[in-house]
Amino acid sequence: MRDFSTDLSYLDGRRAGMTATLKDWCAINSGSGNLEGLAVMRAALLEAFADLEGDVEVAAAEPHEVVTQSGEVVRRAVGDVIRVVKRPQARIRVLFAGHMDTVFPADHPFQSHAMIDDDVMNAPGAADMKGGLLVMLEALKCVERSTVADAIGYEVIINADEEIGSHGSARIIADAARRAHFACVYEPSLADGTLAGARKGSGNFSAIFDGKSAHAGREHHLGRNALVAAARFAGAVDGLSGAREGLTVNVARIDGGGPNNVVPDRAVVRFNMRAERAEDADWAQAKISDLIASADRVDGYAARLHGGFARPPKPMTPELKAFFEAVKAIGAELGQKIAWKATGGCCDGNNIAAEGAPVIDTLGVRGAHIHSADEYVRLDSLEERAKLSALLLMRIAAGDIPAPGARI
Known about the structure:
Elements: H1 5-8, H2 15-26, H3 35-49, E1 55-59, E2 64-67, E3 73-76, E4 81-86, E5 92-99, E6 114-115, E7 120-122, H4 126-144, E8 152-159, H5 170-179, E9 182-185, E10 195-199, E11 201-210, H6 226-238, E12 248-256, E13 266-275, H7 278-296, E14 302-311, H8 318-333, E15 340-343, H9 348-354, E16 359-360, E17 367-368, E18 376-378, H10 380-398
Helix pairs in contact: 2-4, 4-10, 5-9, 6-7, 8-10
C-alpha cells in the first residue's frame, strides 16, 4: 500500500491551533432556537470552511412545526444550512455531515469553557459537535494537500436543527445522501473511542386532546375532562414498551389543566418512541393511530396526533459492517483501537442510511456527558480523529481499500 505518512504530516502538531479554534467556537451560543447566535456560528464556519476552496452556499431550511403548551400547531424558523461542494464529478463521492446547533439556549448558565486538566476541556458543544466539525475540516484540509485529492469529490452539509430533529434540513440532507457513495458524520464517539454501530429509530409525538370546560361544582356533569383522557392515553401508549423487542416508549410530559374548580378542556401528551427495526416502528405508529382514533370516538372528546418517526432505524447491514471493518483497519494502521456497538441514540446518520448510503456517524472527537453542563472533549482526539478520517479517505482514493457502498 502507498505510504501516506508525508501527506498526514500536515496534521502533526495541529492540536494547539485546533484547541484555540474550538474554544472560540464554543464561546458562541448556538442553541437550536437562538437564530442570532446560529448566524454568528454560521459566519465563523463559513470563514473556516472557505479554506477548502469549494463551492459554498447557505441553503434555506424549512420552518419546523411544533405543538405549543396550549395544543396549537405553529411553524417556527430554524437556522439555515451550510453546503460546500468540491469535485462533484469525481470517481468517489462522499457526504460529510455535521451540525452547528447545541442543546444550550442563550439563557443557559453553561456558556464558556473550563480546563479540567491539560487534556480535558469542559465546554458547551465541545464534543457535540463543534469538536467534530473541526475534525471534519482538518481531515479535509489534509486530504486536499494529498497526492490523491482529485479522486475524492465531496459535499459538506452543516445544519442548524439537528438537536431538534433536523426537520427543517431533512430534504437537504436526503438529497445529498442520494448523491453520495458513502457518508461520514462527526458526532462524538464515547470517551474510550467506541463508535455507534446500529442505531434505533426515534419518533417524537404530541397527542392533543380536546374536551369541554365546565364548573367543577355546579356543572361537572357537563364537562369533558381532557386531562383525564390524556392520562388514559399516556398509560395505554406506555404499555406498548416491550411489545416488540427493543421497542420503548417514554411519556415525557403532559401539558394541561388549570384551577381546581374548572374541568380542563385541552391537554397535550408528549412522548418518544424508539424501535430497532423499521417494521416495529410501523407497527408502533399504527397502534398509536388506533389509540388516537379510539379516544376521538368518545362522545364529547376530540383527539389528534402530531409527529412521527423522523429518525428511521439504522441497522447493521453487510455494507455498513464492511465500512466499519475498513475504519478499524485504518485505526490499526495509526495505532488506534476502533470498536463499535449498537445504541438507542439517533442522529442524522439514521436519515442518511435510510437513503441507501453506508454511514459511520461517530467519527468526531472522544468525549462524554453531552447534553449536560458536564460535557467534555478529550483534546488529544482532535488530531487523532482527523488523521483517522484523512487516512481513510486517502486509502479509498488510492484504491488500497474498497470504497464503501454498492453504488460505485
